[in-house]
């Protein structure tokens, strides 16, 4: 399911139908509008199309609006009906609402009010359908399109759960937020979502790290420039190019506050204005954002808007770091060995049997980026038979140096010095390293300057 936006206008007056379609196209640009002038065709049109909303006249030849209302409510209960009629009778209006109409408008009513109601009804239908679909899919616990996850190898139950969740929410009109450290597979998840929701449409990835508001607007919204001679030059942005595909906004935590306000407008109103234009254009794409930052803590520091945070969090995927996915290690190493060997035109070397146990305590701060780099390095240095493990050992050793405590580096003579001697030696060393600056020496030794001064005086 995409956004609920298909509307059928039913009225026996062709000129009214035409003008209503034009007005709604202008005021609710995200809607896709069909018209039907013959009440006998309504049943057929509903069977062929999945309409979110029907705007229905009451008095028509062949079938009255009230008969059609009853038929639509029983045959297409997920379709909402708004009565738009010249009949200004309270009794009729009450009867229609009781029989399931979403709202009732008189043709002379303000058309802006009608447009607002149409937009609200589309949102209600979208949310209802979305909720039902997520519930059905998530409860089934079966992956319907496992091929969408072909590039994400895992046997970790926590990640397999995320596959099911992504499949359930991929068609939702709400945005998805993917969070996780660098290299945990956020881009791969966004690509899987593209496969699941709109594989035949474009996938556009925009990295927001370091972007300013103007650059964001130009890149995402595009620009219209009117020259002095009246000629208009248009430079399309990502929202135009992506059409009904997927827009992936990478590093959303880096977006400046002013640009966040523009983005929330896009998500809320499903429309955007190119720079220099006051004409709204509809947004038809799916939006995924990703972050390495803790957006809640950025929000507390006033660097991330609450409204954007809560809209993005409607569907949230959190990817665990590689250090919490050690079950996957061996499989990922083999996968990257094959990738590397393929790319370098070499025979794929074997993974040493004990490699993963040697890596058991290594944290992989760079996650899969780091593992991939190590394996590629190991393949390029290998003899074609066994993977060269030098890059892994270098990383483990570098990691261990960081973990060494100062006391591990001290070596003692056979006969131990007294505490007083060690204390004096430490003070002398600190004073000599700091050119007799007591404040700096005290900081080095972890005591106050007055405490150091007392000790020095006592020694004298
Ligand atoms: N489960 C996986 N199986 C196989 N390859 C993977 C898996 N997850 C990620 N990769 C690969 O690891 C590398 C890093 O993944 P990816 O770029 O998706 O991470 P990221 O979280 O988006 O990183 P960054 O925050 O730096 O953009 C990529 O080459 C990707 O193809």
TrEMBL record:
Q: Does the keyword Zinc apply?
A: no
A Gene Ontology biological process term: phosphorelay signal transduction system
Q: Which residues form the Sigma-54 factor interaction domain?
A: 152-380
Record domain HTH lysR-type: where: 436-460
Task: Say if the entry is tagged with keyword Iron-sulfur.
Answer: no
Q: Which GO terms describe its molecular function?
A: ATP binding; DNA-binding transcription factor activity; sequence-specific DNA binding
Please list the residues that carry the modification 4-aspartylphosphate.
57
SMART domains attached here? AAA, REC
The record, for CDD domains, names: AAA, REC
Where in this chain does the record put each Response regulatory domain?
A: 6-122
Keywords in alphabetical order, please: ATP-binding, DNA-binding, Nucleotide-binding, Phosphoprotein, Transcription, Transcription regulation
Q: Supply the name of the protein.
A: Response regulator with CheY-like receiver, AAA-type ATPase, and DNA-binding domains
Whose protein is this, by species?
Shewanella psychrophila
């Amino acid at each position: 399911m995409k956004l609920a936006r298909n509307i059928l206008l039913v009225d026996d007056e062709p000129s009214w139908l035409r003008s209503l379609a034009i007005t709604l196209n202008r005021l609710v640009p995200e809607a896709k509008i069909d018209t039907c002038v013959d009440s006998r065709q309504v049943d057929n049109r509903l069977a062929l199309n999945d309409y979110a909303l029907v705007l229905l006249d009451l008095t028509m030849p062949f079938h009255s609006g009230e008969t059609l209302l009853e038929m639509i409510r029983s045959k297409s209960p997920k379709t909402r009906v708004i009565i738009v009629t010249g009949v200004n009778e309270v009794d009729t209006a009450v009867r229609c609402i009781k029989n399931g109409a979403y709202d009732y408008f008189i043709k002379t009513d303000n058309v802006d009010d009608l447009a607002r109601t149409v937009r609200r009804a589309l949102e209600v239908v979208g949310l209802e359908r979305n909720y039902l679909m997520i519930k059905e899919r998530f409860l089934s616990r079966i992956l319907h399109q496992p091929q969408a996850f072909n590039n994400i190898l895992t046997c970790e139950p926590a990640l397999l759960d995320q596959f099911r969740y992504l499949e359930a929410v991929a068609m939702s009109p709400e945005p998805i937020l993917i969070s996780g450290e660098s290299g945990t597979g956020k881009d791969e998840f966004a690509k899987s979502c593209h496969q699941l929701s709109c594989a035949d449409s474009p996938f556009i990835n925009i990295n927001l790290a370091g972007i300013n508001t103007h650059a964001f607007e130009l890149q995402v919204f595009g620009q219209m420039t009117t020259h002095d001679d009246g000629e208009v030059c248009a430079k399309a942005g990502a929202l135009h190019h992506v059409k009904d595909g997927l827009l992936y906004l990478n590093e959303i935590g880096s977006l400046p506050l002013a640009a966040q306000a523009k983005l929330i407008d896009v998500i809320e109103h499903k429309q955007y204005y190119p720079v220099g234009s006051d004409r709204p254009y509809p947004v038809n794409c799916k939006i995924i954002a990703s972050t390495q930052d803790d957006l809640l803590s950025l929000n507390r520091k006033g660097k991330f808007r609450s409204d954007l945070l809560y809209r993005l969090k409607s569907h949230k995927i959190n990817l665990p770091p590689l250090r919490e996915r050690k079950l996957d290690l061996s499989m990922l190493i083999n996968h990257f060995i094959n990738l590397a060997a393929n790319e370098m035109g070499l025979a794929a070397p074997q993974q040493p049997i004990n490699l993963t146990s040697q890596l058991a305590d290594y944290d992989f701060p760079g996650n899969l980026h780091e593992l991939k780099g190590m394996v590629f390095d190991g393949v390029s240095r290998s003899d074609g038979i066994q993977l060269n493990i030098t890059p892994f050992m270098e990383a483990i050793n570098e990691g261990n140096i960081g973990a060494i405590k100062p006391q591990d580096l001290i070596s003692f003579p056979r006969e131990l010095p007294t505490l007083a001697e060690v204390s004096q030696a430490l003070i002398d060393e600190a004073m000599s390293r700091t050119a007799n600056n007591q404040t700096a020496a005290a900081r080095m030794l972890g005591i106050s300057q007055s405490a150091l001064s007392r000790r020095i005086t006592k020694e004298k």
